[in-house]
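Chapter review: from sequence to fold.
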Amino acid sequence: MPDNGEKPRITIVVSGGMVQSVYTTLETDVEVDILDFDDNGYRPDDEREDRDIYHARVIKEQRPIY
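The token string follows.
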């Protein structure tokens, strides 16, 4: 359970067109984030970097549920 006032969330990690993992901080009243790693090169490098940094935070701060 987050103690910093952030809204609980679920994060779904997709690669190869398939969900690879799902994380959550709580089971109710959650936000859902889809991290799509299959951008076929259209996403700018800075957006990819932001996504990768966020993904590392997700792995560290949330528990896997899938």
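Two observations follow directly from the output. The chain has a mean pLDDT of 83. The chain has one domain: 9-64.
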